[in-house]
Specification:
Two copies of one chain form a homodimer.
Chain A: E1 3-7, H1 10-22, E2 28-32, E3 38-40, E4 43-45, H2 47-56, H3 74-81, H4 92-106, H5 111-122, E5 127-130, E6 137-142, E7 147-149, H6 150-156, E8 163-169, H7 178-186, E9 189-192, H8 197-206, H9 210-215, E10 219-222, E11 225-226, E12 229-230, H10 235-241, H11 248-254, E13 261-265, H12 272-277, E14 281-285, H13 292-313
Parallel strand pairs in A: 1-2, 1-9, 2-5, 9-10, 10-13, 13-14
Antiparallel strand pairs in A: 3-4, 6-7, 6-8, 11-12
Helix pairs in contact in A: 1-2, 1-13, 4-5
Amino acid sequence: MKVVALAGGVGGAKLVDGLAKILSPDVFSVIVNTCDDFEYFSLRISPDVDTVCYTLADIANPETGWGRKDETWIAYHEITKLGIPNWFKIGDKDLATHLLRTTRLKEGKRLSRITDELCKGWGIKHKIFPMTDDMVRTIVKTTDGNALGFQEYFVHQACRPVVSEFDFQGAANARPVVAALDAIEDCDIVVIAPSNPWVSIDPILAVPGYKEAILKKPVVAVSPIVGGKAIKGPAAKMYEELGIQPSASAVAEHYKDFLDGFVFDNIDNNELRKIQRWRIIPLVTDIVMKNKQDRVRLAEEIVTFSETILNRSR
Amino acid sequence: MKVVALAGGVGGAKLVDGLAKILSPDVFSVIVNTCDDFEYFSLRISPDVDTVCYTLADIANPETGWGRKDETWIAYHEITKLGIPNWFKIGDKDLATHLLRTTRLKEGKRLSRITDELCKGWGIKHKIFPMTDDMVRTIVKTTDGNALGFQEYFVHQACRPVVSEFDFQGAANARPVVAALDAIEDCDIVVIAPSNPWVSIDPILAVPGYKEAILKKPVVAVSPIVGGKAIKGPAAKMYEELGIQPSASAVAEHYKDFLDGFVFDNIDNNELRKIQRWRIIPLVTDIVMKNKQDRVRLAEEIVTFSETILNRSR
């Protein structure tokens, strides 16, 4: 069975790590959101790509959910000492990533090729595709009339502003990475990782080609919402601010046009019938990944579940 | 007495530090070579400006002659681990400088203004002027027909190639920093620090305006050559390769069109008469600055010597 995952940051990265542990590089690849990408301190930063790669390479910081483990902050503190405001904390090891990426982009290399180079350096065997090599940016529109860059909203303003809308700037004219589209075409099933539907998965689907490609495939999604709360990040807050009760079923509804199977938590078992009403096949299990064993266990359950879905559709 | 120094890297920085210890910021400023500047790993690096600033701020690495003291190499090692060739070692603290400079340049700020900001952050009270805000680059032409960027020659190839000529790309069309020109106009005497005449001082003089300005002022130079050898760097090697015996008098001759006084080492006392033949007033003393006391002592001697020259010319 060939699997392609769509993923954003932390939660997505954990499931991708579990799947990568049980599926070999020739049958599993990942397409990652780049709409969070931004320029900061003259560096090009790709937060979701980095989180997925760091997690796969086992060099991610398990506490923060971003950046490297065993990180140091020498350069960051020097900038702080100069009295320069800098709200985005970049560690010294993390800096190496951004410096290399920025340098290669200046050389005219594409983000997807640079990601290959980084993955090779980190010993990652699975293919990690940034969703596009083009410039795309999530703009968070807020009820007080502001339009914030994603990291401005997410990090600098700590998700405090009330969102009203998302604008994936450049996405409609962006080109998907060809090999990523091919991977979807060649796969048996698409897994949407437990990432934020609004700002991690929707941006991928906003790039022309991806939605069309996954519509032709069985799709399984994993809920990022458990017990009405996001496991991490602002997904639940966003649902509320957009007038939708945050819940597993709200996520299923978000994807219902193309969803064949939906994986959600035991705690949300009461939503089972609602989800089944949309003819989505449910898998109710423990989806909170507290440790590396959880990742593999959940990945195994999802693979088995996917096989069931494939057998049904045959 | 108002003094302006022209300086390049290490030796120049040491004398500038001595002068800054005994002359207040309203009577002493420095114009620094930027022809060594280059882009590396997407960062704009200004080696001579940094060396002068780090030295004045007492954060320079005393062993290497470049970079910061108490430096760490976390980012550098990460890049190395990725298998990326990187011959220019940048420490984590040093990175902060280059990141800030690069960021500000991207924001459209001028190098001289950025240098002010850095100096303020480091607590440097004296004015440090990069010689120009424009893009200038020393190209080292070699006898084997190559044209090397300065850092390629200096760091990557460790000064091994035999030089035939220097090309200060962009210098003839570069504009001097206006406040630096004003500082020369307002000063009583110009001190040429013990920096490499070929690649540290000549580039400054190649920017239209500086040579004209210093021709109107008494000028004192300090020899970077002692006993036929450069105290640091490739100056002596360059003299030889250009067919000139490296010596204190060769330096004096280099500057003789505008030199009023020349400071050279006791060990080169035998060159006294030769230097006097060009009507240059000599100061023979111990010019090797081994410690911070030496810097202040030499600076004091130069200030006294400069006063003598000023009194003579009145």
